Amino acid sequence: MSILTLKDGTEFFYKDWGTGQPIVFSHGWPLDGDAWDAQMLFLGQNGYRVIAHDRRGHGRSGQTWDGNDMDTYADDLA
């Protein structure tokens, strides 16, 4: 489990498990990256690299007032 700091200073929490072809999981509202744990465990045990994050304003990521829109969420993952 790791945290990276985005360009605007927001802390961005993510999990990155395994090796192999990567699969990125993005949760819906009002969840966080933990919603994908069962799928991540299965795919990680079957040779995939699995990555899940907590969107800004969710879970262990920074609780920001700004940037809670799909364009910013996409930029955060880029």
From TrEMBL:
Keyword terms, alphabetized: Hydrolase
Name this protein carries in UniProt: AB hydrolase-1 domain-containing protein
Domain AB hydrolase-1: 22-77
GO molecular function, one term: hydrolase activity
Entry-linked InterPro entries: AB_hydrolase_1 (IPR000073), AB_hydrolase_fold (IPR029058), AB_hydrolase_sf (IPR050266)
GO CC terms in record: membrane
Source species, domain of life: Eukaryota
Stretches assigned to coiled coil: none
Residues of the signal peptide: none
PANTHER family: AB HYDROLASE SUPERFAMILY PROTEIN YCLE, MONOACYLGLYCEROL LIPASE
Pfam families according to UniProt: Abhydrolase_1
Source species of the chain: Tanacetum cinerariifolium (Dalmatian daisy)
